[in-house]
């Protein structure tokens, strides 16, 4: 059965699910300056506690303070600020790479054992987009894979008819049938990471050497996080790479 247009995804979707909430202790007030988010204030408070510099002797606003933190490479205070993001419109190929980032991250991903993929969507690889012949060939393969999955689930439900628990029977069928689904199958994943971990992931995955789909996601995440907490991510700069796609570079490496 031919895939409908809505089954083909060409861009990821990034949603912020949670962000830090900072409560300043009344007995250790900081002389705050400038605009800042709760996550940024949390990191500044942690940094100032190390030296008991709550009176802000250098008269730095929060973003200047954190800019100096990045410059000096004292990134440990950034680990206090955690952000949870929802990624949709990404492939399982991408998440296989994403979950290699372990330190500072937590992941919860859609389970193909439990979720019916009969109406699955597929993420078109960026390298294919815009070439009509390649797009047609890829779409045909995705359609064939989905047909095979649906057929296998139906046949396996019959094969395991002796299993009284229908929920368990469906799981048995889906976990076997998912083997024919391609890496391009769309998935959803909740990712929680601290600001330091996000910086490391973005530096690696937004670079020219990164795989195109995860680079595209990293650029999208970078823009979201620059709006969410600019002091943590304002030293990332997007540019047009030699492959005519967006990449990013960072001023302060391995903060």
Short account of what is shown:
This protein has 255 residues and is α+β, with helices and mostly antiparallel strands. The protein is built from eight helices and eight strands.
Give the overall average pLDDT.
96
| Oligomeric grouping of the chains | single chain
CATH class of the domain at 82-110 and 186-250: Alpha Beta
The CATH topology of the domain at 82-110 and 186-250: Alpha-Beta Plaits
Percent of sequence in beta strands: 15-25%
Order of helices and strands: EEHHEHEEHHEHHHEE
What is the topology, as strand order, of the major beta sheet?
Answer: 2-3-6-4
Please state the structural category: alpha+beta
Reported CATH architecture of the domain at 82-110 and 186-250: 2-Layer Sandwich
Q: Helicity, in percent?
A: 40-55%
Give the terminus-to-terminus CA distance: 50 Å
Biggest sheet details:
4 strands, antiparallel
The low-confidence runs, each spanning 5 or more residues with pLDDT under 50, are none
Query: How many helices does DSSP assign?
Result: 8
The best one-word shape is elongated
Rounded to an integer in angstroms, the radius of gyration calculated over CA atoms is 23 Å
How many individual β-strands?
8
Task: Write a concise keyword list for the protein shown above.
255 residues; alpha+beta; Alpha-Beta Plaits; four-stranded antiparallel β-sheet; two-stranded parallel sheet; 8 strands
Write the layout of secondary structure elements.
Blueprint: E1 8-9, E2 13-18, H1 38-51, H2 62-72, E3 82-91, H3 92-98, E4 105-109, E5 122-123, H4 132-159, H5 166-177, E6 186-194, H6 195-205, H7 212-228, H8 230-233, E7 236-240, E8 246-250
Parallel strand pairs: 1-5
Antiparallel strand pairs: 2-3, 3-6, 4-6, 7-8
Helix pairs in contact: 1-2, 4-5
